Each structure stands twice: as structure tokens, then as C-alpha cells.
Amino acid sequence: MGSALEEQREVIEGLREDGYSETVIDHWLNPRNLGRRSREECDGFSDWFTGSCGDSMEICLRVRDGVIRDATFMSDICIGAVTSGSMLTEMVKGKTIREAFVISPDDILSRLGGLPTQFVHCADLAKNALNLAIRDYLALAKEPWKLAYRKYY
User: Burial letters for 94-115: b for 16+ Cβ neighbours within 10 Å, e otherwise?
Assistant: First the structure.
């Protein structure tokens, strides 16, 4: 029986052989910002958004003075979805809402070093979930009194 370290090396080598970039492998094995927050903790929140492939993602944004200070995501455990959500949440931190909104799926893929064709749509999944969280933030910014009712919906 191999050690855990040997098993991890085998997994990494298999991912390399399958054409995954070192960045994708790192974000898959060490996802950033993966975790669920309650809706009440978020300044902008996307409910589970399901993409064309059936994978789902939600994103929580914490915003102060128009700048995204923190972003977390939860997703189905799919290498494309997890790595896209991980990269996107890293990319939006420190950006204004406007700067985050213009990030494209191609920007995510470029920062990841690409994804195999069957997972390219996962960058769209992450971007769509982000757009929903941004819309939620903007709606609450317009009518902040709705924040008090968040726990009911």
C-alpha cells in the first residue's frame, strides 16, 4: 500500500498527463475561498446557479466602499467548476464591482492556463454565478432596507 504522498504524486501526474496546467492542478488540490456562507453574511449572493452541464455554483461577496473585500464559492465537486470558482474568487478580491463585472470567462480560463474542452463551460458557470451575486449586491445597495428581510428569502 502506497503512502498518501505517493498517492498524491500519482494523482498529480495523472492530471498532468490529462493536460491540466499546473495552475489548475494547484487550484484543484488547494481550492481558494471554497466554503458556504449564509445569505445574511453576504453583501451580494447568488443562489445555486445551474449551468448547461448540470453543475451548480453559488457565490458570496463581501463588499466595503464599493470594493470586493472577500468572495467565497460553493460548487459541485467537478474539477472545472472548483478551479473556475477558486480562480474567479481570487480575481475579484480588491476589485470594484464594475471591474469584477467585466471579468470574462476567457479571463478565468487564461489565468488557469486553460481547461480541457469538456470543462471550458465551467468558466461560464463561475461568471454567471458572479453576475447574479453582483446583481444582488446592486439591488440591495438601491434598497438597503431589504437587507433586514434577507433571512426570509
Answer: ebebeebeebebeebbebbebb
Residue from 71, 102, 80 nearest 21 by CA: 80
> What is the rounded average pLDDT for all residues in the chain?
92
Residue 1 reports pLDDT greater than 70: no
Range of the domain at 17: 4-152
| Count of CA atoms in the C-beta half-sphere (13 A) of 26 | 8
Catalytic residues: 53, 122
Using left for φ > 0, alpha for ψ between -120 and 50, and beta otherwise, residue 41 falls in alpha
Assign residue 71 the CATH number of its domain.
Answer: 3.90.1010.10
